[in-house]
Amino acid sequence: MAAGFEGFRVTWRGDVFAGARQHSSAALFGTLGIDFIAQRR
């Protein structure tokens, strides 16, 4: 990858706005939260 990372992988993804008042607005934009892991070259 151009940014100097390799082995990039998503370890978790979820709806971080679940239960929030703005949930419907976030859902319109497909907003999700992720955790990821990568190694620096």
Describe the fold and architecture.
The protein is mostly beta strands and 41 residues long. The protein contains one helix and two strands; from the N terminus they run E-H-E. It has one helix at 23-28, and strands at residues 5-14, 33-40. It has a two-stranded antiparallel ribbon with strand order 1-2. It is elongated, with a radius of gyration of 14 Å.
Pairing-aware structural class of the strands and helices?
Answer: mainly beta
Distance between the termini: 10 Å
> What string, H for helix and E for strand, traces the elements in order?
EHE
Show unreliable segments: none
Measured on Cα atoms, how large is the radius of gyration? 14 Å
How much strand? 35-45%
Using DSSP, what is the number of strands? 2
Spatial shape: elongated
pLDDT averaged over residues: 88
Binned, the helix content reads 10-25%
Numbering strands along the chain, what is their spatial order in the largest sheet?
1-2
Q: What is the makeup of the main sheet?
A: 2 strands, antiparallel
Helix count equals 1
